[in-house]
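Worked example (supplementary).
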Amino acid sequence: MSRPAGKTLLKPRKTPRQARSGATVDAILEAAARILERSGFDGYSTNAIARRAGVSIGSLYQYFPGKDAITASLIEREQDALWKDIAGIEAAAGGSDPLRTLIMIAVTHQLRRPALARILDVEEKRLPRDIAPSRLAEQLIITVNTYVEAAGYETDMEDATTARDIIAIIRGMVDAAGQYGEHDMQTLANRIYRAVVGYLSCEI
Amino acid sequence: MSRPAGKTLLKPRKTPRQARSGATVDAILEAAARILERSGFDGYSTNAIARRAGVSIGSLYQYFPGKDAITASLIEREQDALWKDIAGIEAAAGGSDPLRTLIMIAVTHQLRRPALARILDVEEKRLPRDIAPSRLAEQLIITVNTYVEAAGYETDMEDATTARDIIAIIRGMVDAAGQYGEHDMQTLANRIYRAVVGYLSCEI
DNA sequence: TTTGAAAGTGAGCGATAGCTCATATTAATA
DNA sequence: TATTAATATGAGCTATCGCTCACTTTCAAA
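After joint prediction of all chains, the assembly is encoded as:
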C-alpha cells in the first residue's frame, strides 16, 4: 500500500533481452487484462496478476515498477492496436469516406473486448496525468481534423474544438453501447456517423 | 479490506431520528465529496472521510454499511439535485425549447463542481450494479423521449435508442469539457445542442 | 566447459485499509 | 429528576495490499 514519492514510473524497469522474458511480460499483461474484464477492480492486485500469469511476484516487479505501470502498459497496448488500425486508413487509399472508416474502427475495437475496453477507459481517466499514456489523444485530434477538412467542413485548427467534440461524441456513444451490451456494429456505426455528420452540418 | 459476501448494502443501516445525526450524515457526505474532488481516490478512505467530517469512524459506520455506500449516497445526492432541476423544466411552461433547456441544465450541473462530477461519473460506472443508483438513467430516457417527440422528431419508444444516443452524446461532450477545463457554459451548450439537433435531423 | 549476466523465485515486511465493539455522552420522554 | 433510547467515540483487530531482497535457475558467449 505504500506509495512513496517519485515512484510513479511508467516504463518497465528492465527491458527484456531474452525471448522468455518477453513472454513473461506478455503473460503479465494478459493476466491483468483477464482479471480486469472478469472481476473488475476487485481482485486486481499485483499478487493476483502474478498468480494468474503463472509467474512469481518477484518477476512481475522486475519489469514493472508498480501496479499503475501495469495498467498503463495495458492501456498503451490497446491504444497502439487501435492506432495501428487508424493509421492504416490513409494507406488504404482515399476511396471511401475516411470519417466513416474511422468510426467503424473505433466501434470494432471497443466491441471486441467490451468489458476490458470500458474499464480501461475508466482507469485511464483515474491514472495520474504523468503516468497515463496520452499520445493517442493528440494523434487522434490531428487525424480527425484532417478528415473533417477533407470532407469539406470548416474547422479551427488551433483550439481543435471541432475535432475534440467529434471524438467526445464517438467515445460517448461507443462507451454507452458497450455498457448496454450492443453487438450490432453496423447499426451503431451508422448512428454515430449520423451524429458526427449532423454536428458538422447543423447550422443553428 | 475485507469484503465478505452479502455486505454490499446501499442504504444507511440506521435512519437518523434526531437533528444532530442528520447533520452527521451530511457532514460525512460533504467530506467525502471534498476529498474526492481535491485528491481523487488517493486518500479516499473511510478514516480520512470521518476525520475531515469531524466525526468519529464509529459514527460513520453507524449510518453507512461500507465505503461504497458512501460513494453511492454521494452519487444519489448529486443525481437528485440534477433531477430536481430537470423536473422543473415542465413546470416552467413549454415556452422555450425544452431540449435546449435540458442541455443547459446538464452543462451547468457538470461545471459547478467539475472535478467532483467527473470523478463520480467514473465511480458510478465502477460500482457494482446492485449498489449504484440507477433511477436517474431511466427517468432521463423517458423525459428525453418526450421532448424529442414534442419537437417533432420520430423516436422508437420501445428500445429508446434515440434517447439513449442523445444522452450518450450529452454525457460524452460534457465530460470531455470538464476534462479540458472548459468554463464557457453557453458556448458548450450551443455545441452540444448542434450535435443533438444534427443527430436528430441528419437523414443519411 | 566454464562463467557471468539475465531471468525467475517466494517468504515475508511494513503499511494501511475497512471495520467492530465496548464504552461514554447527549437528548427526549416519563 | 430519573430513565432510556439515540447518538458518538476511538483504540485496535484482521485482512490484505504493494513491494523487497536474498537467493536459485537458465541461457548464451567465451
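Two points are worth noting when inspecting this output. Residues 1-2, 14, 16-18, 20-21, 24, 55-59, 62 of chain B lie near DNA strand D (CB under 10 Å from a C1'). The two ends of chain B are 53 Å apart (CA to CA).
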